[in-house]
Amino acid sequence: xxxxxxxxxxxxxxxxVMVMASLPALAAEGKSGLPQLDPTWYVSQIFWLAVHFFVxxxxxSLIILPRxxxxxxxRNEKVAHDKATGDACKEEVKxxxxxxxxxxxxxxxxxxxxxxxxxxxxxxxxxxxxxxVFSELHDNYIAARKKIDADIxxxxxxxxxxxxxxxxxxxxxxxxxTVPDAVIENAHRIVMSADASSSAxxxx
Length: 204
Hints:
Helix content is 92%, strand content 0%.
């Protein structure tokens, strides 16, 4: 605002000087026509032309041109600063993008490694649990088999007298005679050995 007011003030001053310089020519116009065509006014016109030119030259070189040059310099400095700032921002963006890509690649590698380790650990845990379960099932099967064999043996021992008596009675009815105990014992031993053989074959 201050520079604009100064320019207007200087412009008004130059205009006033030019008008004052033109007053004699305007006064003479009413007497002898156009004064600028009168040779008697050539010297005065050349003088005032030189004065006006010199004043305008000084005004332009001392006031207008320095301000234009200053504005141009400020503009160039601002453009250079903005360009430098833009280049710095661009380089910063490139650096941040590179760091982000590196961090992302590292995170993916860590995730893959963790997934592989978890999968391997899970496989090992499942394998160990499976072996443990199979071992427990085998031990339970062996224990159950032994208990069943023991129960069967105990049952056979408890049924031996009954079996002998039943065998004696059956043979006595079939032969209508008394059967010796040795025969009954021999037959019972044969049946028990055949049963033991069949049991061993089924368990194997």
